[in-house]
Amino acid sequence: MNLESKLTILADAAKYDASCASSGAQKTNSRDGKGVGSTGGAGICHSYAPDGRCISLLKLLLTNSCIYDCHYCINRRSSNVRRAVFTADEVVKLTLDFYKRNYIEGLFLSSGIIRNADHTMEQVVVVARTLREVHDFRGYIHLKTIPEASPELIETAARYADRISINLELPTQESLNLLAPEKNMARTKQAMGRIRFKLEEAKDRKQNGDTKLRHATGQSTQVIVGADASTDADFLGRSDELYRSYKMRRVYYSAFSPIPEPSVILPLKAPPLMREHRLYQADWLMRFYGFGTKEILTPEMPNLDLELDPKLAWALRNRQDFPVDVQKATREVMLRVPGLGVRNVDRIIRIRRLKKIRLEDLARLRVSLAKVQPFLMTVDHNPARYLLDSDRLRARFAPQPQQLELFQ
Amino acid sequence: MKSVDPGENFESWREAAKILLTDGVPPGEVLWENTPGLFSEMNLAENPETYAALKVPADFVEMARNVCCHCDPSKWGLLYRILWRITKEGERKLCAIASDADVSKALMMQKNVRREIHKLHAFVRFKLIDTDKETGRERYAAWFEPDHYIVEAGTPFFRNRFANMNWSVFTPKGCAHWDGGRLMFSAGISENPVEHPDALEAAWRTYYRSIFNPARVKVKAMQAEMPKKYWKNLPEAGLIGELIEESRQRVRGMHGEELRPAKPMPRNAYLGRLREMSEVAICAGPLEGQSLVSKLLATGDV
């Protein structure tokens, strides 16, 4: 099979892994090396596909042959998809050729499981080792790892990569039993716990003077939304646990997507993409705005409102906390105002020490006045009480009903 | 009204501003124009100590460096007005007031400059020109069309990343060249000198086409980050139209597919052991649990 066919098949096979980050690596460059590459700081999105996703890395499967049978996956053994396999040298050459032309920040490498976990991981590690040791490649490498692989192999992978990840896929063991029978929640979490330990150990060693040590700086994971009845509360509860106890950098929420090789077990209908968007918004609220999962969702309401963003939905449920005095409120309280992002809250705090904030200041900070006015009080604006009490407040923010297409 | 030539960059503007400040010329009386010969008529400051005594804050300097790269010529007057307010009108912390009318304009210019530097790092596409037969050292070149004057600020990034190859970035607003020793800059050129296709562009287009998921089309999100103005110098942009058009059909095709039945588990010792492990309760801690897993996996086909 020629290289172009392999590339078509094995990039197509990798597209369902949403992870795209090229950020968070330790700072390096090639000025004192023999090869190419630099990392550090925020990642760079070198291109964007019409699905709105950024293309930052060369994202490939080493092979799409797989002995597992995860029903949502195009590469499962029950799929009739055409199979291919790269040699390590082919992946190394593609990575370097694309990198030198500034098409990519680096490589994202995963694989179908062949023979067993350790054998598969060894093949993946060969590619990363060759890039680092033979070519002195200092760009970004993200390696996917398999929870059942030996801890030594996973740690070897972590020495060559900037980020490693294991996909959780689903938030409960029940879902896994149905959709991914070879995967196991407890084993996956164990592997994540071990990785966390190793990441912290490496960080300590670097801080204590071991400057030569190269090690991954973080782990991330992905879950599939809408392939079964798992609720948003299930997902967010699991994410909360992963961020707190496993020091996960990112959880990616990937809406279940119809694939060319559908399984009898899965729904044909994909969840609305808006659901994925709301989960990311809720995830951001948890990580940067001080919200607890029980505030965003309740047992009576285990799924996020699709019509309103979760921060606004929370504010409408908690009108007694508003309006907030922009001149005096604490940072924690200001972060709860719909329409105020973290950056603007920090800017407002700096500005209000020097002058009184007026509506025109907010406008120049590009805050949406329409969104913010019912919840905020400035020296020249105080929302009418009736505005906050009215049920029509929700109606103000809900999206306009859409005209249905006459001919579907 | 005093006519002053700001020059091309932050350093030249700063020299002019120093003189104007020490002479006490208010912003309303300065006309900033690039006129050759005008600058030489001004006397360099007779009292350099007076300028130092003005104590210009560091946050202004950083912002001014970025704003001076912007293409809008009103930047010179805007910066001078802000500097005047800071030094002569006692508004020492002016740059912290992001909502001030002047500061917010300057910050918006800074934001646009920084954004474009980021897009330079993202969208410059190099082409291989040649490889030295003896040393194996490669030479690459790229063409880019920025709105702002970002070549000097943005290209050190490429020197750090591609230190061991020679490269040039050509733009109408300045060019940068790296030969392994020094990063040099030259005047802008009006036409793309590297129009020929590169051998890897076909592979890159294949990758771009294959990584796209036709079940999710979000053109606005794509265009917000990759505006159309950059498309003509991106080899993959030509595919965007056809990918969007085909997507609906491809998804309809997926929905029409027959559902695949699950194939039986192949005879594989590893899969068998995975099944066994899932049935064993793991109640020990992570390290003990792992030795149990390793034991189960170690025998046989590993």
How does the SSE layout of this entry go?
The complex is a heterodimer of chains A (408) and B (302).
Chain A: H1 3-12, E1 47-48, E2 54-55, E3 57-61, H2 88-100, E4 106-110, H3 117-134, E5 140-144, H4 151-160, E6 163-165, H5 173-179, H6 185-207, E7 218-225, H7 232-245, E8 250-255, H8 273-288, H9 293-296, H10 310-317, E9 324-325, H11 331-334, H12 342-352, H13 359-364, H14 369-372, E10 376-377, H15 385-389, H16 392-397
Parallel strand pairs in A: 3-4, 4-5, 5-6, 6-7, 7-8, 9-10
Antiparallel strand pairs in A: 1-2
Helix pairs in contact in A: 2-3, 3-4, 4-6, 7-8
Chain B: E1 2-4, H1 10-22, E2 30-32, H2 48-53, H3 58-67, H4 75-88, H5 101-123, E3 127-131, E4 138-143, H6 151-154, H7 156-161, E5 166-170, E6 175-178, E7 183-186, H8 201-211, H9 219-225, H10 240-256, H11 269-279, H12 286-298
Parallel strand pairs in B: 1-2, 4-5
Antiparallel strand pairs in B: 3-4, 5-6, 6-7
Number of helices of chain A: 16
Tell me which CATH architecture of the largest domain in chain A applies here: Alpha-Beta Barrel
Q: How does the overall form of chain B come out from the CA principal axes?
A: elongated
Q: Mean pLDDT score of chain A, rounded?
A: 91
Q: Specify the structural class of chain A.
A: alpha/beta
Poorly predicted tracts of residues of chain A:
none
Helical content of chain B (DSSP H or I, runs of 4+): 40-55%
Order of helices and strands of chain B: EHEHHHHEEHHEEEHHHHH
Strand order of the largest sheet of chain A: 3-4-5-6-7-8
